[in-house]
Amino acid sequence: MRDELETIGVPVLLMLLLAATIGGFGLNTALFLHLQQWFALWPDAVWENITLLGDALASLALLGLLAFRHPQLLPTGLLAGLVATLLTRSLKPLLAMERPLAVLGQQVHVAGIELQTFSFPSGHTTAAFVVAGVYALVLQRGRLTALLYCAALLVGCSRIAVGAHWPMDVAAGAACGWFSAWVGWKLANHWRWPATSGGQQTLAGLFLLFALLLFWLDSGYPQAFWLQMAIAAASAGSCIAALRLRWRKPAPRPTP
């Protein structure tokens, strides 16, 4: 895998530079309106399904999809999610930026839920980049990293397409999510408890709970309902398989 500076530092710095450029030169509104026109080539149903992948609970369920084969995804994802939540929940009320609908009114095409405030940074984009970053860092496959980054970027584009966020929000969210994934990965590498049998079972049970809660989530995007159900079912099945595997074959205790 590429060194950490290239894999983590460069994308984060580029996204932050993009956000600063958009904000500094006052490009947010014009870029948002142009991108909405281009993204209108795809129907709302497509964008609602894509944007669901950035929902916080759906993101946690996505991290559980390969829990039975790659248990390290769970502690890394949990810690990365906590870091990302701390970042976004601190910045949103602190900056209190209005969303496109509150500023532009009827010029904005909205799909799904109508949002007015707490725009910066994009939480869905942050969550999508957390998932992509965690998978990239844990699996450590070069080509897969690029594909995951592009997939997360598509989720960010969906936030503009559904009228929920400015381009600057998306760029900042991408930086927050990718950085949070790296922090979570670093912390998880020094966390011994998840390597124990009890730790693996507890984490698998926790992510099973996330998957089950996803069945009852009102995401605000009704056209993504069946994708939501599919993610919840697949993640629940994976976590159950992980629990059965750890129950039958306990993990060895970590050496001191």
TrEMBL record:
<feature type="transmembrane region" description="Helical">
    <location>
        <begin position="170"/>
        <end position="188"/>
    </location>
</feature>
<keyword id="KW-1133">Transmembrane helix</keyword>
<feature type="transmembrane region" description="Helical">
    <location>
        <begin position="73"/>
        <end position="91"/>
    </location>
</feature>
<dbReference type="InterPro" id="IPR036938">
    <property type="entry name" value="PAP2/HPO_sf"/>
</dbReference>
<dbReference type="Pfam" id="PF01569">
    <property type="entry name" value="PAP2"/>
</dbReference>
<feature type="transmembrane region" description="Helical">
    <location>
        <begin position="118"/>
        <end position="139"/>
    </location>
</feature>
<protein>
    <recommendedName>
        <fullName>undecaprenyl-diphosphate phosphatase</fullName>
        <ecNumber>3.6.1.27</ecNumber>
    </recommendedName>
</protein>
<feature type="transmembrane region" description="Helical">
    <location>
        <begin position="45"/>
        <end position="66"/>
    </location>
</feature>
<feature type="transmembrane region" description="Helical">
    <location>
        <begin position="12"/>
        <end position="33"/>
    </location>
</feature>
<dbReference type="InterPro" id="IPR000326">
    <property type="entry name" value="PAP2/HPO"/>
</dbReference>
<keyword id="KW-0812">Transmembrane</keyword>
<feature type="domain" description="Phosphatidic acid phosphatase type 2/haloperoxidase">
    <location>
        <begin position="73"/>
        <end position="185"/>
    </location>
</feature>
<feature type="transmembrane region" description="Helical">
    <location>
        <begin position="146"/>
        <end position="164"/>
    </location>
</feature>
<feature type="transmembrane region" description="Helical">
    <location>
        <begin position="223"/>
        <end position="243"/>
    </location>
</feature>
<keyword id="KW-0472">Membrane</keyword>
<feature type="transmembrane region" description="Helical">
    <location>
        <begin position="200"/>
        <end position="217"/>
    </location>
</feature>
